[in-house]
Amino acid sequence: MTVPARRQSHSLLPDFQELMDMFPTFGALRPFDFHTIRVEDKVEEGRYLLRAELPGVDVDNDLNLTVSNGLLTIEASRSEEKAEKGRSEFRYGSFSRTVALPEGAKEDTIEASYDDGILTVTVELGRTEERAKQIPVRH
């Protein structure tokens, strides 16, 4: 059985957000704070599985998933307010992440669920044809 080829390869280096997560927080502030969504993905048993960390998101009002031309886009926003002893804090932000689906992904079979702050998206994979072909060279 062949493993479907990915349209986009992952680098051996961590992404920029992971590097920024290594900085200690000073009063909940990092030198850079990019509103990104952490994801993990894998192919297993003929399905593409993506899990995204989205704690505190109201699924009905603040989460939007779209797919177009082999790209899955996750958009979310969240807000949080705390008030205690005459002091209040609030945090809010929008987050977006676009992921290339593997070749052979059947976009019409996408299913998504949300549980305990984790968004899980599954996509059925079909067979992909070999795309390599011999090209004659004229001389």
From TrEMBL:
Domain of life: Bacteria
Matching CDD domains: ACD_sHsps-like
Residues annotated as transmembrane: none
Domain SHSP: 30-139
Keyword annotations from UniProtKB, A to Z: Stress response
Family note: Belongs to the small heat shock protein (HSP20) family.
Protein name, UniProt field: Molecular chaperone (Small heat shock protein)
Organism whose genome encodes this protein: Saccharomonospora marina XMU15
Source organism phylogeny: Bacteria, Bacillati, Actinomycetota, Actinomycetes, Pseudonocardiales
